[in-house]
Each structure stands twice: as C-alpha cells, then as structure tokens.
Amino acid sequence: MSGSRNRTRTTAITVVAIVLPLLLFVLSLNLGTYRIPPKDVLPILTRAVFSGGGGESSPAADVLIRIRLPRLLLALFAGAALAVSGASLQALFRNPLVFEFSLGISYGAAFGAALSLVFLGAKVPAQAAAFVFAVVAVLAVLFVAGRAASQVVTILLSGVIVSALFQALLSLVEFFANPYALQALIFWLMGSLGQATWTDLAISLPLIGVGIAALIGLRWRLNVLSLGEDEARTLGVDVRREKVLVIVLAALTTAAATAVTGVISWIGLIVPHLVRMAVGPDNRKVIPLSAAFGASLLLLADDIARSAFAFEIPIGILTSVVGIPFFIVLLKRSGKVWL
Amino acid sequence: MSGAGRAVRTAVLAAAVLSALSGPARAGQSVAVTDSLGRTVKVPGNASRIISLEPEITRIIVALGAGDRLVGIDFFLRHQDHLFPIIAPAAARLPVVSNQGQELNYELALRLRPEIVFASPSEFRMAESIEKKLRVPVVSLASLGRIDALVGEIALLGRILGREERAARLAAFVEERLGPLRRGASGSGEKGRPSIYLSFWGSLVRTPVVYEPVDMAGGRNVAAGLLPDYLGAAGATVSVEQLVVWDPEVILIQGSYPPAERRVTVEGILRDPRLASVRAVRAGRVHYTFGYWYWWDPALVLVETVYLRRILHPEDGPASSLAGEAEIVFKEFYGVDGAFAALCRILRCHEWIPK
Question: Helix/strand/coil (H, E, C) string of A281-324?
C-alpha cells in the first residue's frame, strides 16, 4: 500500500518536474517591462526560427528574440547546471553540505572575472577568465588531494583550502582595484542573467548541456558510489576514476554557467535537498529531478528579479534572501536531512 | 555611493543660511556646521592643517586656494586619479593617509596633526571613529549628483576655511556659466527635453537616478525617480529590456575611464543587436560624457554641463570652442593652463567632444 502511494507520489512529482519548467518558460516569455501581446509571441518566435533568427526587426521582436529568449534559456540551463552539480557532488561525497563552493569553483570563477575586470581589460572577457579559473580551481583541488582524491575528507579539505586561497586572491584584487573597476566587479559578483547574449550562450549552453546530460547518465553509478568506497569497489567500480569523472563534469558544468551568470549561490545546495525530501535519496530520480527543479527555481527567481520593480534586484541576492528562509522552514518541518 | 540626498540639501541650505548670517571665520574661532550625515560639528575657524579623504572636497579646497593647508590626501587622488596631478601637482605628492579600501592610517594621520578631517558620507562609520581616535572634528560632505549642493559645498568650505570671497567668486562664476543653461532648460518645457539614458560605472545596465547636469543641460534622465529620493545619487540596476522600453533619444556613457579600461563603448552600443530599435542607436546619438570622477570635480562638472547642452541641443547653433571654454573654467578654478587638454590626452576626449 505504502509502495503504491510512493510510486504515485513519484509519478506526480515527475509530471510536475516536466510541466513546471515548460509552463514557467512560456509564462516568462510573456513577462517583462516591454509589453508584448501574448498572441504575438508565437508568430514572432516562428518567424525568427524560419528566418534563422535574423529576419524581423521590430522592437517587440528585438525584445523577445535578442533579450528575453537568451535570458530565459540561460536561466533554465544555469539553474539546471547548478542543481545537478550540487546533487552529484552531494551524492559522491555523501555529504549534504557539498556544492560548487566546496570545490573552489565559485571563488575560482570570481577570481578569474576579477582579474579580467580589474587588470586585463576588455581584451580578455570576464566570462572566459571566470571559466578558466573555475577549472583551474578544481584542478588545484585534485592536485592537492593527490592520490587520496578518492577520500571524501581529503578532497573536501583540499576544496576548503583552494576556496580560501582564491577568496584571498579575490580580496587582493579588490583591494588593488580602482573604484570604477571595483564597481563592475561587485556587480558581477552579485550575479545576473540580464546581459545574456546569443554569443555568450553559443559557448556556454553546449558545455552546460553536455555536462548535465553526462551527469544524468552517471546517476546509476552515483547510487553505487554513494554506498561507500568499499562497497563500490566490491561491485567492481573504479572509485578513483569515477570520482574524478564526476568532479570534472560537475566543475565544467558549473564553471560554464557561473562564467556567464556571475556567482549565484544556494541553488546547488537547496534544490537537491528539496528533491530528496520529496522523493528520497535514489540518485536515479534525484539527479534529473534536480535539473528540472533547479531550472524552474532560477527561472522563477529571475522572473521576480526582472518584474517586481522597474529596476533589477541582483539574482544572487534574491536566491539567497528567498531561498535560505524557505529552506530553513522545510528543514524545520522535516526535522532531518536526506542523503 | 550611498548617502542621503535630502540630508545633503538640508546641510547645504543650512550652511548657506549660516554663511549668510554669520561673519567670516577667524583663526581660533570655532564654526558650527551640519554635514551630509546630519551631524552638527564644531570645527576650528581658518584651519591650517587639513586631511581630506573625500576627493570632491580636496579639489574644492584646492580651488579655494587653500591647497597648501592640506597635509594628507586619500589613496585615489594620489595613485588612481589622472586629473588631480594635473590640477594640483604639489598636493598630489602629499602623504597618503588612506588605503585602497578607504581605511584611514590612524598613526600617520595623528603624526600629521590635522585640525580638521573631511570624509565621505558613504563611509558613515568613519567620521565617528576618526573623531574618537584622533580627537579631531570630522565633516562628511558630498554633493551626490546635485549642482546646487556642489555650489553650497563650495560656500560652506569657503566659510570653514575663511575663504568666503574666493567661494563667492567661484559661485558667481558657476552661475555665470550655468545661469543661461538653466534658463534655457526651463524654457524648453518637457517636450523639448530629449530623454537620456546614462550608462555609468562601467556597466550598460547601471544608471544614476539623480544626475543634475543632464537636467540643467535641458535633458530628461529616464531613470529619474526609479529609486526613492533619499538614496540621493545611488545607481540603479535595470534590465536591457527596460532600456528598450524607455527608448531614450540619447545614450550617455561614463567616459572618465582611459579608453583601455572602458567596458561600455559607443561602438559596442551602436553594434548591440539588442538595442537596434532604440531611438538613440538608430539616430547614432550615443556619446561619452565625463560622469563621476570619484565624486565630482567642480570644474569638470561645469564643463560637462556645457558639453551636454551642446550635444543635447545642437539647434542652439555654433558656439565658442568647448575645449577653449573648458580651459577658461579650469584656469578659473585651479589657475592652471592647459589642464583640460592634458586630461583629454589621457581620455582621448578630443575624439568625442564637439570641436
């Protein structure tokens, strides 16, 4: 009886996970300061698709195709990327507190962006520098952990050290920044989807997409790895190789997203927990559902950020201010952490 | 740039009233002033040893002819500003008493034996901290994007420093330059004011909600009123979509960066497909302006207002050379020849100001 109820519940959640991002996407397309009648949205999109994106040039088409659509796609992909990376890393390390910050990815990206904005000038875009240093941070974590990279404590400790190093380097760059560059840096660090362009997306979306798909593909093996190293080895899994693979994929996915959006915190921590609260710890469900709910949450947060006022609230602030109290309430109600 | 615009105006008005009612400050006499944080501070009249941590105030002190009384300046003016060494080469070599994070080096400051310290109202905790540690009065002042507040600041500093006549002469000079512009702007009515979007602080989507040179030059800041008045000149972040909705007739980009440091450029905006439908882009009316100079430079903001009038209202017809006019303004404020030309070499502004 209980098993049947669980199956029904999982089915219902899966349906919501499929419908919610699509629904929010359609709703978001119709939302914004520039009023586009809902009946015009589909024809504009259709004409853009059939003309290869370059045909029509009217204010409504410009807003929909060149401003709103890339922004919404970035919200969907970045939300999914952060949530899937968080869920994978939490399963891998069997630790509910692990997310992209734990492996130095966020501070590595922030340091790269800071270098570009403060010292390197427009020739090295902040996005490219952020991506490179996010990857460098993860490689540094793996290097510091060395042969013990398969051990949870070692790799987390390496992550803390590398994070602290990049945080200090970021502070150093901030300290030497002139006031105008500092303004741009602070703005980047608060996170934003508002300036997404098709050029940004052409580079980041394929990387994010491949990363998410690969992590979803590894969801079975994450179940085996989350049993513990000895058990996984007994089942014939090359623990070290699998761990490095998951870490590198999670890092690439998050770095590709963070490079374009800036630092958006808490999605990677909150969403996987919410999903586990709903469906339990089975990674076969948790990973894909995290992708769907991460995408939905970031899309919703961005809708609020761009529609609540004539000015924009930085999305990194919004995800923290709204996400954390929401998470605390759920945690208090449930009284435990799922893993 | 946080702070209270209302408090500034109140402070400046109060200072103006006090200046009008009381006689000039004399050495040994103390003067009561209300600063931008609403604090009433008793300062020594005609102070001879001054530390200024607020660039706008430092520049006004130099313009009032009291630059030789400065004993310490802030990090920005010494190491990052490309204008200050041109207008006050001697003062630019004074000891630096703050670091990049605008924290005061208390021990050095104490050794310099200041009689008064000027600070920025955005560092609102600093005033009380300095007063407690150095036992020296601290006045926090900034004009927050308002020209009347800047003129009030000049009057207030003239009174504190016993330089009322020089302050009155500068105020009269400003009025002589801006009076006709102000009258022209008020005469053109709402319809005659082109709508302006300001892209400041190195970002397309960061914009000041108060920037009076635009209003005084006969323009209308589309972001005016976006944030409550008490936030003063604070910048708002808007979406690109909002920018399209505003559809400004002119876009102005903060040009106080050397070209290599510019993140937002005229060419970039004109090429940005997202902005293709915006009137300013279609008409090619995207320009650099000077913008904030870590707060303002009083001479440059005057030049900027004249410059804006010319690009916003070209129908006013040909006028004297802007570069020539700018040199007259800098000469009046700082007594330096060729200051504007030297600045333009760094910013390459001869490429974008009208001949």
Answer: CCHHHHHHHHHHHHHHHHHHHHHHHHHCCCCCCCHHHHHHHHHH
- CATH fold of A70-334: ABC transporter involved in vitamin B12 uptake, BtuC (1.10.3470)
C-alpha span between B144 and B121 (Å, rounded): 10
Q: Distance between CA B346 and CA A1 in Å, rounded?
A: 78
Q: State the DSSP code for B140.
A: E
Give SS3 for B116.
strand
pLDDT tens, B21-35? 445 555 567 888 888
Residue the block writes with tokens 């006031």: A179
Q: Which of B238, B262, B277 is the closest to A311 by Cβ?
A: B238
Helices (H), strands (E): how many in chain A? 15, 0
Model confidence pLDDT, tens digit, residues B276-311: 999 999 999 999 999 887 788 999 999 999 999 999
Q: What is the chain A residue with the closest CA to B261?
A: A121
Within chain B, residue ranges assigned H as helices are: 5-21, 55-63, 75, 84-87, 106-111, 124-134, 147-160, 164-187, 212-216, 240-246, 266-271, 279-282, 298-312, 322-334, 339-347
- Pick the last residue of a domain from B170, B203, B222: B170
* ipTM summary value: 0.76
SS3 B44: strand
Q: Which domain holds residue B150?
A: 5-170
Q: Inform me whether the C-beta atom of residue B239 falls under 8 Å from chain A C-beta atoms.
A: yes
Write down the residue that tokens 């399209």 correspond to. Answer: B244
pTM: predicted TM-score of the whole model, two decimal places: 0.81
Nearest-CA distance B17 → chain A (Å): 34
